User: Fold this.
Amino acid sequence: MLTNEQRALIVKGIQRGIKDYQDLVALMPVTRTKKHAPHLLYDMVNESVATMIEDNPHTLMKVIPRKAGFHPYIVIHDTIRNLFILVSKLPRKKYIPTPCNYRGEFASANAVRLNEMGMSMDEIYGDTPYQESLSLGIDNQPFGIVVTYDSKQESYFEGALRPDQEDWIYKEDISDSINIDIDALVPLNNYQLSDIPTPLKTSLEEDIVVKLKGKTTS
Assistant:
């Protein structure tokens, strides 16, 4: 599961993204179809979450842009524990996201972790046909976590999908579990070489006198 700090960063990023979206929409003219709304919300939330992660490099999480067909999305990689984290909109009244190819890619790897924890493939998949993961080792098959949000209800859930995407391995309401003030965190110094002043010593223009040692005779 996510750590408290990871939850705080991601949820605060979602909240800021929703606020940025609402501010933009308030400035836009009213249209009949309003097709821009869900796409704009998606973009603003992803951008805000990505910025939140990148502004806190001490967490050792990376933002990876991906694309599934014509659908761009981001993946947050916890490089310490080798976890992949997806952020997805999900209305509170809906129990689970609709199965899709890009979520399925991450959900399929969850079977490996469950198998390592003692569950048999029959328990994991039941009667559903499945393709076994390649034997690349556990480190190359990161566990996939999904953080969902409802922009209208202000609810947030964390969970991991079963490989068939038909149910959750676990699902936790994290709406009230953010108990860390990330504004008080002190980021690590991340200096670029160009940021470090390298003044040269002021040269002296005085004449330098060189004395040669006189030749001695025996």
